[in-house]
Every structure is written in C-alpha cells, then in structure tokens.
Fold these 2 entries.
Entry 1:
Amino acid sequence: MRGLRELCLAPAAAVLAALFAAPMGILAAYSLMTRGAYGGVATPFTLEGWRRMADALYVAVLIKSFVVAGISTALCVLLGFPLALFIARAGARKNLYLALVMLPFWTSFLIRTYAWMFLLRDTGLVNTVLLGLGLIHEPLPLLYNWGAVILGLVYGYLPFVVLPLYASLERQDPALEETAADLGARPVETLFRVTIPLCAPGLRAGAMLVFIPCLGAYLTPDLLGGGKTILMGTLIQNQFSSARDWPFGSALSLGLMALVTALLWMQARRKGETLP
Amino acid sequence: MNRLLTLTAVSLYAFLHLPLLVLCAFSLNRSRFTVWEGFSLDWYRAALGDGQLMEAALNSVVVAVGATLISTAIGTLCAYGLWKRESRAFTLPLSLTLATPEIVTGVSLLAFFQWAFRYLHMQLGMHTVVLAHVSFSIAFVVMVVLARLRTFDRSLEEAALDLGATEWQAFGRVTLPNLMPGVIAAALLAFTISFDDYVITSMVAGVDSETLPMALYAMARRGANPAVNAVSTVMVVGLGALILVSERLRKR
C-alpha cells in the first residue's frame, strides 16, 4: 500500500524542498556574508548583517511595525466582532452575508489598495467632493501617511477576523444567552459577560490571522504610505533593491520569519485553536 | 440593540464594498478627472489600445494558466497522499508557506534563483514567475482538495480494491472523479491568487515578463489614470466570478 502514497507526495516534497526550504537556506547563508559591490554577496563570512538589526534605527522600525500591526489588529477585532455577531444572528441569510464579507477579500488585493488611492489622493474622490461642496479650500493630505496605511490594513484584513469569530459565535448554545437574560442580565451585560468571553478562542485566532500579515505587510505601506512609512516589509525590500545590502536583507527576512513562526507556534499550541 | 447591530453591520458592508464599486463606476466616466461628466467607454478603449498593458495581460494569463496546471496537479496528488495518512512533515511546511510574508517569499526566491542561475546560465523571466507562483499556490490547492477528501467515503475506494482494482485504478476511476469539483475549485482559486499577485512577481520577474498587476502598480504610482480603473474593473469582475464558481463547487 505504501508505493502510491509516496509517489503522490514526491512532487510536493520536491516543490517544498526546492522552492521553500532551499531559498530559506540561501537566505541563511547570505545573511552570514558580506555585501557585494554591485548587490549580491561576497566573502568573508561575518555576523554583521545580524548585528545591524540591533541598531537603534532598525529597532525603531521593528517597534513601529508592531505598533501599526497592533493598532490594525485591534481595529479589525473591534469592527469584525459586530459584523460576525450580525451574521451569526442573521438566520437563513447567513451564508449570503458571509459571502459578502469574503468576496472582496478574494478578488484582488492590489486593486483594493488602489481603490483607496483613488479615493484619498489630492485629486481623489473625497477631496474633489469636499472641494466641490466648499467645505475645504485646498485638498486634505489624506494619502501617504500612517493613517492611510492603517486604514488600508484594516480594510484588507477585516475579513480574516470575521471568519473565526463567526465560527465561534455560531457554535455557541443560544440557551446560554437566554439563561443570562432569564436570570436578569441586561443585553449589554449578557454580551460582555457571556457572549464575548465564550468566543475568546475565535478572538485569539482572528487577531493572530490579522496580526501576522500586518507585521510583514509590504504592498499597503508602499502604496498608501508612499515611501514615507518604513515598516519591516519595506525595509527588507529596500535592502534587495536600492540599498543593495543582501546580507542585511537576508538577516531581516529570517528575523521576520522567526517572529511569524513563533506567533504561529503560540497559536498552534492551544489545543483545538489552530488556524483554519 | 438589534437595530444598532444592523446599522453597524450595514456601515461595515458599505466600508467593504463601496471603495471597489466607486472605483468601477468611475471607469465609465467620460472625464479624466474625478468629476462625473457622463457615461463613456473611452477608458476601456484606451486600455485595449495600450500595447504594453495588453502584453502584460497576456503574460499574466500565460503565467496563471501554467502555475495553475502545475500546482493543481502536484497539490491534488499531495492532498491524496496526506488523506491516506497525515504527515506533519508536509502540513507544517505547507502552513508555513501560507504564513510567510510575501516580501520574504519574494526575496528568498530572488536570492535562490540568482544563486542557481550562476551555475545554470539562465536569467529571470516567465519561468521564474511560474515557479514562484507554484510555490505559493500549492498550499491553497492542498487545503481545498483535502477538505473535499475528508467528506469522501473511504469505503468506496476500499470496495474498488476488494473488487480487484489496482491502487492506481481505484484512485483514477473512483476517487479522482469524485474529487473533481474540489479539484476544479482549487484550480480556480490558484488561478485567482496567481493572476493577482504583485509583490512576489515583481521580485522574480525579468525584463520580458511584466504581468498585469505590475503594469497596474506602475500606472497607479504615476498618478490618476482612469484606464487603471477600467482594467481594475475587468479584473475584479473576472476574478470575482471565478471565486464565486469556486465557492459553489466547494460546497457541492
């Protein structure tokens, strides 16, 4: 019985080895080398790439990435919870409402980010309308700042948090909320003392699903932050393009990878709360 | 409180959908500026007449079809193997590829291709883009097909074996046909994420392999251009339709 299974797994093993493990191995090797004159890497071997991560400048970028990802995650959870609650209580239309959350997520990340550029830039729709109404006299600087980046991240990853929250709420026994009400709890009390505590696993999984991609986000800060907002993703990209410092970029990539893996592992350790 | 909840949900749906709807609506605007001046298809004509844009669109189709065929075949076989017996040696790295930040996947593949090509005397191009897309779409295929397999009754395959079919025959003539909706759903999903990718593609593309998202990105950076809205609309509608079909098949 063994033959067929092994044969089926072999091509995937080859892809994972050649296009995932080997590239990571190359990054590990490059992170220990010296930058080449025209990009690329050269000998001698050194720990310089890893050491530079401790520079105050780069620690600041790391902290900023955590803060931005944290704020975006908090906003996603705050907005995602009422949406999930609404869907879970929608009865027969549940699937339709859920599909309406997921559909924009699957269509195109690039275009969804571009949509905000279209709305927010100086000649964009929001400024045009406000100018036309005479509410402002010169365009508001809505694009290319931290606010726009966080808005883009929340918009991009809100569906991620809705799905596990909905799954959690859906599984809850409605009798629990009824009991709370029968025992004299007001709806708000029931919400905060029964419903929300019971969906803690969904909250944790949802928060993690948003936090991880936000931490390594590249496209959103690049387009909506316009190069003024340097986060981890942008810093890594810079090392491989304009800065031409592949060893430092490799070390940064592996550092980010280690962070992501640690977060995943923390989540996976909770029994029955693995990421979908 | 119920009314408040409905109101919140409605505003959130507006937040999720209005930006795209407005973007699509303005692709039909006659004016170059963000002021509505009347209905026109000029920007669609402009996009169709843009040779560079059309070449990028063709590249995207070629890449997405190639990557979809390869990753669907390999991913389906892998899911079947894992269904016979789970193996963390596969599920762990597969979920890691899903969680890896795109920019890290991009630079690691770039570093790997540059290193390998020093010995192979090759250059970045369409083939590297296809390989990169295979690497990130395979996990999605495995996920979708494995979910389908979990609803498949093992005894059907066992019955085929008992009746004298070889393992290959049982797989090819009993299990695979039953899996087909899941396989097609996975392929449509793989096509969508391949067609849409910008970050990884931009790292591993060569001079002759600009894809549609790369062209759109460059145009978006240059400033307002309603032709971008027109192309975006076609992409959103096309990819949206594929996803709807994929979801349908997955639930069947």
Entry 2:
Amino acid sequence: MLKQCEGSHAVAATVALCRPEVICAYPISPQTHIVEGLSEMVRDGTLQNCEFINVESEFAAMSVAIGSSATGARSYTATASQGLLFMAEAVWNASGLGLPIVMTLANRAIGAPINIWNDHTDAMSMRDAGWLQLFAENNQEAADLHIQAFRLAEELSLPIMVCMDGFILTHAYEGVDIPTQAQVDAYLPPYEPRQVLDPREPVSIGAMVGPEAFTEVRYLAHAKQMQALKLIPQLAEEFQAQFGRDSGGLIRTYRTEDAETVVVALGSVLGTIKNTIDDLREEGRKIGVLGITSFRPFPTAAIGEAVRYCERVVVVEKSFAVGVGGIVSRDVRTAMREHPHPIYAVIAGLGGRAITKDSLRQLFLTVMDDKLEALTFLDLDWNAVNRELERERITRRSGPIAENLLRDLGVVAARVG
Amino acid sequence: MTATIVKFYQTGTHTVGNRLLDPEHRSVQADMRRTNSLNSGHRACQGCGEALGARYAIDAAMQATDNQLIAANATGCLEVFSTPYPETSWQIPWIHSLFGNTAAVATGIAAALRVKGRTEVRVVAQGGDGGTTDIGFGCLSGMFERNDDVLYICYDNEAYMNTGVQRSSATPGAARTATTPAVGAAPGNVFGQGKNLPLIAMAHEIPYVATAIVSELRDLEAKVKRAMEIRGARYIHIFVPCPLGWGTASNQTIHIARLAKETGVFPVIAAEHGELTKVSKIRKQLPVEDYLKPQRRFAHLFSPTPNLAAIAHIQALADRNIRRFGLIDAAPVGAAAGAGDN
Amino acid sequence: MEKPFAITLDVGSSLANKTGSWRTCRPLYVDRLPPCNNACPAGENIQGWLYHAESGDYEQAWRVLTQDNPMPAVMGRVCYHPCETSCNRGQLDESVGINSVERFLGDQAIKLGWKFNPPETVTGKHVLVVGAGPSGLSAAYHLARLGHRVTIQEAGPFAGGMMRFGIPKYRLPRDVLEAEVQRILDLGVTLQLNTKVENIEESMQTGKFDAAFLAVGAHIAKRAYIPAGEAARLLDAMQVLRGMEGEEKPMLGRRVVVYGGGNTALDVARTAKRLGATDAIIVYRRTREKMPAHDFEVEEALQEGIMIKWLSTIKNMSDEGTLTVEKMELDEKGFPQPTGELETLETDSLVLALGQDVDLSLLDGVPGLEIKDGVVQVSHNMMTGRPGIFAGGDMVPSERTVTIGIGHGKKAARNIDAWLRGELYEPAPKHALAEFRKINPWYYEDAPKTVQPTLDQARRQSTFEEVVGGLNETNALFEARRCLSCGNCFECDNCYGVCPDNAVIKLGPGMRFEFNFDYCKGCGICSVECPCGAITMVPENV
C-alpha cells in the first residue's frame, strides 16, 4: 500500500513486518524516529512477540543483539555516526561470531567537530568490520532492503548494515509502498539460527583462536561474503517476483550503456546525479551513473564489467580518508584492474553540505574534459582553507581549526573572538 | 542434668560434604553427579581461585535450574583458560563476546528466551573484577537498572590477572600490581574509596545482591540457589584469590580467602531490594596482618620496615566492614549449640 | 548444529588437554595412626568405632569396638582413658569423651542384648586360662572367637578378678560386670570357679590343654611394718574391698584412716565413707602432684568429704587407735624426708593401701621360667620361658590397670593362636602418628566436651550407687561427632570439592576417593584443606 510517510516511519513499519524478536536501541540522531516507531508498535501490540529494550549505550545495543541473536532470536538495532563508533568493538564481534543481526545505519558525519548531518564516514569506518553493507538510494529502497537484509543475513549467518542517508532519507516524506504481512512472510521465513545457545545442545561460542587458525577464520568470513555476491542478485530477483519491485541487487546502472564517463556513487545522491546526467544526456554528452547498493561485499566483477568500455570514471563520495583521499574510489579502482581508465575521486557532501545539481554539472563538465585533479573536493571554500593554512604557517599554535574557520566565515558571533 | 545438645554434625557445613547431614543439606559439590560445568583440562594456573569459584557457582546454578542454563562470559582469565581453540572446558551453553559487554549480552539472551517463551532457561553472566567493576560497569549498571532477568557473577581477584596483574578498581589499597609498583613514597595501590560493587548494586535496589567467598562453599551455593529463585537482575560478587597475582602458594587459595573473611577484609553478606538480609559472621576474628603477610603483593608492608600506617589503614577498613555489616555478634555465641548455617 | 570453524566448540572437549603434565608434586592419600588408638592399652580402634557411632549405628560401633575389647561397659567406667589424654581435640577445645561413649555403647549392648558372633571355624585346640580377671577374660574371649576351646579356672567364687575385688561398686555396678562376663561365657567359654591352680604343669596335663594363659591378679596386699597394739584395728585394702563383695561388710568404725596414695587408697576411703564413717582420712607421704592416684578420683573423693593429710607418714598405732604421724618434707629430688615433727591422729581403724603382689606359687617347679621383682618375665609375644605357657596382666612387668590387662589378654590370645598353628604372630605395621599439626581445625564445629552427669553429693555420702552417670543417646552422639578422625579419611568430600581441576574422583560412600592424575596439576589445595590430614604431597619424579 502506497503511503506518504517519513523515511524513518517507512523503515520502522517494514522492519516490524519482518517480525523481529528483539529490538534494542539507544537514541542518536538521525536514527531516533525509526526506533521510536518500533517502540510504539511493540507497546501498542502492533508488533507482537518482540522485546524492545532501551539500553544505556550503543555498545550495549549491539551487545544485546549479539546475545539475543546467538539465542536464536531475530535481532535488530539502529544507530548512526558516533553511536556506530561507540559500538565498534561489538560490531566486529557480531560479524566474527557470525550473527545475522540487521542494523539500520542512518548515515551521519563523525566528529569532532560534532556534526549531526549526513555523510558516509560512519559506514566507511566499519567497512572492514565483516558486515555486509547495503546502501539505499531512496526510502522505498531503504524499506525494501531491510526485508532482503533479514533474509540474506540469516541465510549467510552474517550481520548486515542497511545504510540510509541521515535526514535526507530518514526525515524525508515520500510515497513508500509498505508491503503486507503476508507478502513479507512469504518472502522471509522464520529465523533458523545456524548456531544457538540452548541447553538442549550446549556449545561454547566465542573461543579464543590463536595463530594456528585465525587466518582460516578470517578467510572463511571472506568466503561467506563472496557467496553473498551471488545471493544478493538472486534475492533481489525473488523480491521482484514477490513484491513487483526492482530493489536491491549489487549495483544499479543508469544510462551507462554507451557512456564515456561513468559516475559512481552510493545512497541518495544518486537521485541528484541522475537528474544532472539526464540534462547532460540531452546535451549529447555520453555520461551515465553506477550506484553501488552492496558496498560490502564489494561487487568487483560487476563494477569492472559495468565500467569496462567507458573512458573515465568519477567517484562522488560522501566520505574521506584523511591523509589518503577517497575510500570508495580506491575500491572502484581495484575493480578496474583489468581495464584501467582514469579515475577521479570527488569528495562531496561531508557533514551534510548540500550537493547541488549545479555543482555536479560543473564537476562533470570538467571531468569530461579530463581537467579534474585525481582528488577533488566539491565546493570547497578555498579562501577559508588557505587563510587558515597561512595563519598556521606563520604561528605554529593557532587554535582549533573549526573555530577559526567559522570565525572567518562570520558564522561565530563576535563574543567568541 | 540438663544437657540439651541440639544437632551437632562434627564438621557441620564447613566441609564440602558431610555424610551425617540430611541429603538436602549436602552441597552440590559433594554430589557425585555434579555437573562439573567447568570441566577438567582447563588451563587455569595451579590452585586458581577463579576456576574453583566458577565451578562452584555454575554447578549450583545448574542444579537450581535443572540444567536449564546459558552463560555469557566476559573476556579475562576465566574465558581464556576455559576456551582456547580447539578445546572448551564448559559443559553448558556458553558465549564469550567481549570484555565489557557481558551484562548486555546476557540481557539479549534473556530477551530472546522470553520472546520464545522459554523462561525456564535461565541466564548467568560472569566476568572478573576488571570486566565488572571497570570496563563492563556501564552495561552492568544498565542491566541492573532495567532489572533484566540475569544473574551476574563477578569473580573478584582484585586485578587484571590475564594481562599480567595490573590494577583494577577492585585492587585494594597498598597492593602491589604491575601498574602500582611497590616503590616511591606511597608504595603499591593508592588508598582511594575503592569501587564497592556490591554496595553499588544494592543502590540499584535490584532484587538480590550477595557476596560470597570460595572458602564458604555452602554459603556460596545457597546464594546462587537463592538468586535462582528470584526473577530480575541479581548480582553475586565472589572473592577468588589468585596465587599468581597475589604471590601466594598454590595450595593456600582457600586459606587466604578464609583469612579475608575472618579479618573482616571481605564482608560476606546478602541483600534483597537494597536491604541487608544475611550476614555471614566472623567465626574467629583475626588481625589483618594475618591476611596480608602471606601475600607477596603486600610484602612491602612488612619489610624492610613495617609500614604501620598502611597496615592500620587496612585494619580500619576491615573494622569499618565489621561495624557496618555487623560481622561479629555482640552477644557471646552459645557454647555447644549449632551446626553452622544449614 | 552447524558449528562455525574454530569459533564454536563442542562442550567438554578440554578433556583432551591432560594438565597432569604440569605437576611437580602429587597428592597421596594416607592413613595415619590416630593418637587415641595409639594410646589405648587395649589396642582399641577407637576412631574406627566412633565413626559408626557418629552416624548413630551404635551396634556396628559396638561390634568394631569389641573386636578388640569385649567389655566396653566395664571399660567405659573404669578405664583411665589415656586415649582422651592424647586426643588431638584436647588442643582445640577439650578431648573427645571417648570413655563415656564407650560406656554408652556398652550399656546399649547390655540393654538391647547384643551378642558376639560365634567363631566361624573350630580349631579343636584347648586353652587353659588361669584367672577370670580382665586379662583372663579378655584372652578367653579372643581365643574363643579365634575358634579355640577355652576353660577358665578361677580361684575365687566370682568372675571379674580385680574388677570385682579392687573396684568399688559405686564405680562399677556388679550387674554391668556380670552381664559382660556372661556374654563372654555365652561364646562357649567354660568357667570353673573356686578352682585354684596350684601347679600349672599338673593342671595342664590333667586337662590336656594345648596351651595356657596365666592371668593371676595382684591380690596380696603389701604390708608395711607399723608397730601397733594388739587391739589396734589394722587392715589392708584388699581385705576391705574383698569384704565388700561378701555378706559381712567390713567393720571400720566412725573414724577411718587410709595409708597410701594410689587409686586403691582412694577407693578404700570412699568406701569407708559410704559404710558410715564420719571421718575418712588419707595419709600420704608426698604431695598431691606426686600422688599416683588419678586426679579425677582425688577430686571426686575431696567432693565427698574425704580428707587427705599430705606429706605425712604413720609411725605407729596404739591399742586405742592413736596414730603417731610424722610430717615429711620433699628434698631436692622430690623424695619425702622425715622432719622429726610428730602429731597424733585418733582413729577406729587403719587401712593400709600400699600396693599388691601376685601369688606366683602355681609356677613353682616350672622349668625355664624367670621371675624377677615378683612378676614373670615374658617375651614380646607374651610367652614365658616355658613354651605354651603365656602370661599377662598383673603377673608380668607392666603397669597394672584393667585396660592393660585387657590388652594383654588380646595380645596373648593372638600369640597363642599363632603358636598353636606353629607360627609367629606378626602385628600389622603401625602407621605414622596423626599429629595435631596435620589437622586443619577450621573445618570442625566448635563443641566443648559433654560433661557426664554426676550423682548428687548427698547420695554419694551414703550409697554405693554409681557416681558417674552415662550419656544419653543425644549427648553420646554429640560426643562421638566431636571426633576429628585424625589422619584417616572420613569422607568429608573436601578434596573432591576443593580441587579446581575436578581431578578427584569420588568413589561413593565407604569407598573414599581417587586422584585423576591426568588432570591433577598438583596445586596441593586438597592436602591443605583436608580436615584430618589424610592427604600428603610427594615430589613428582620429573
């Protein structure tokens, strides 16, 4: 049933249809509306056979999910940004133990400086944690990916992060088709844990493993994610058969068939990019876009194939590895090993900065002329940056960068100075 | 002649077993069919108090729950010595996740059991003092505050033994550890207020809080049993000497524990909903020196010159325990009466 | 269940890790000799019978006890219980009241009519026992249980010997003695009373005995030369005590003086008091500390109003009954020396209690015998110089107590039995002593000794009722359970419980424990925490 609703609400309603048995959450913007919605459904009986646990931290949230998942309960939590970092140790642990927890990550920047707005730094900080990471382009996909995520996680016995852009999706009202319970039940069977804590068949879970077997354990985790590369498209296909919608999969291409330039991106920015590309296509420019839905496992082959015949690739990414550059672009480059083309990394939208169509158009025009630096920052205020760098050159100690920049920008009131 | 001698049982309940007692008064550990939840072949040091305390507690919990038990275990000695791949010593469903999240993992297990309608299966979380009083304190407090149906057992050996005897917030004043060496003007650990987790647990007003000690098996077992009769958050703090970390002979583990109790250094109590309900009395009060002297971690208090101020400080803390919890009866104990606390 | 590689493990798989290889010392279960057993002159397995009494199985306790001593009801009254003196519990609070529990068991046996099991085999050998005192009865009992035919020839009119003629009724009621004698006779032992053996060789030939055990008591009172008037009433202790067993009680008068410092002196004084004496005075040449009598008997006598003149000797006695007494003083070596200071003491009779001798006339003409200091010399197997003739009790060099006599009887019986079979009796080697320092006293309940009820003073002045009462079942049980079981496992399960490695195997009730050396790391907790010191640590050969 198509419903105009907030993204968080759509996700909450859909997660509820997945019959989670234990939900544990600690509030952090912009994830709050999701767990508020679920808590209400548990309280008013809409969502039955479910324990909602208000924990004292994200670390506890993931830990509760570890306990409940290991005891055979379908377990769900949601977080963002600092919250993800605070639970980091448990994030690694959940995947190491092979527990099929599903977590919504309402993507948000990481401080300091503290910033509540959207980018992908949080997700990227956990890209090597052994979790599957699926990125939603819009709210419909965000909702749909959760249904697929539970199925996928439980088939592989691995945890999955469903990433949706904070505020841009979580707080946006769009029309979302919320499926019926019967549809979801038909797609998602009850959870049958691979290993379970049960007095009827006791086992010890979480052994200490030394050098003699540690590499093998890590390799097996990798092998499982590689299995997901086959499973994800299958499940998307089944999903389409069941729900009549094309959702999920490894990657999603748009007008790339004859593209000389392929833009690569994740999440909601794909919408703006597609609009920009539509305009450029009308102008006769051969450009297309490739959206990565499954960032982990990374669909190396699928991406390599999709960009095989283009001339250049530009990765627009909402994350930045300080001291190196792009994060997604480095993985994309790996995918192009067989057929190398020039690849440009564009850092954009950090900490919630709007990525405008104008800026993108300008960017794409530049790149199509191969005039772009290998690493570019979209809409960077060079004046502010250069002034600070100059000041630092003169006086070794110059105070917090953030404050100085804000003062230069005139954002901070005079009293600060 | 009025010789009214009531039940006297030779060793009463002081020994592990006693053929003279009714079967219901015998200990779990005396039972030939005890679970040995922590089985032979574990890699704990010789004379490990924690291995002993863990088997005592978990076997008792197994009996109290008719073997319907799941345990979550914090990182630490107990975890490392019991489950190095490819062998586990546990005979029960058991999970190790992390150092600081055991209480929360247990909450998750309890939640799963509740939602699955398997409330006959009970949950124990366990860890050392570091995993409990320091790194796991947040999760533990949260579990208490929500009153989750979990029994948390802390095996307190008063330092980070697994990593090589570093100070924890459960390390007593003056004790030498690898990070509080016995050098300088105030050798050993500082005399702070300590972190008295049983009292902190009591302040949460959870249904059950108890302390126990490996030298008083019956009391320990009775407390685990009592804890298992109650739903909600429960906490048992078990004092487990560490021969390696404390610098004691491997055969002294139980003896040292006994001295901790008889000096008042470690009060053995129980409380329900924040109120004290049971106090295990000191049988023969001893000065704290008797407890300190056999331990190398306190050796600097006695040589080359006795540190009388530090010893007096420790004695004052013990005296405060005795006062606060009433560890010594004011009235003289009836001469020929009694068979312990059976 | 599909278990992930390495992360999830099968329960209990650590059994593959044999931690026993860490060990440098290994525990060893030992049995040590309890000090009570060690001290018992009758060789009773005290700890063994207390074990059964502890669980309330009094009949089994009695059966274990009577393997060594057939007369617990008597022994529980008259034994000076060196077992209690050596009891380790004495260093903790007070010794276990072994003697009172023994008496309780003996009384229970009489009350409930428990009988000895008859011997399983009959040897066809016939042994003569001379004297139906403690030693003779004990030997007869043990010989009978070993399957030998036994005939006791007793010179007197009753069985019991010094138990009857030397110990007053208020300490040993005669029905108790008779019941225990009868139970021995019920084993098929023949008792011939008023049958004095004049010549042992003759008696043996006549009766075709294969061996003989001589156990004649010391019934002949020693006399000291005290100048006395013709009419002075001067008796000896044996006359008085023996007289108590006849129809005519001895006439002692209202003022009685007893001369001597042994238990017999006290017995006579206390008897005199009961016969109506207003003054019963003991005159003894040394001090209370030097007195050979047992302190508890002195205490009881003093309570009954007996007076004792210390450091005094009697010089003479006039017809009128006036005693001249000289004060003594102890010299540097503790020997009494006369001071020349004299005083007088009025009395109706003077009883000499200066010790007894044995009538050895039956041995006249027996070749190979050696008699020294009035007693027969025997070898370590209790045999005299004449093969086949054994001797014990008062007749041989030893302290003279009922318990020692009983012990001699047992030892002689075992040796006679071996000798009859042409063998030499080899006693089982003794274990090392279970010293107090091996005990971990923490584990025992605090429990001071149960005080036995004592007869009211008024009744003790005038009657021969038993002074010291018995325990009832409750306090007998209490007393038995005070036993520490020094040096021998009593299955308290401590080792089984305190092992951090589950390396102690419990074999089940009565079967004790075993170590599992596959896993024992040798930490030694079991040894330290064994309450009774029955586990020792020995170095591992590495």
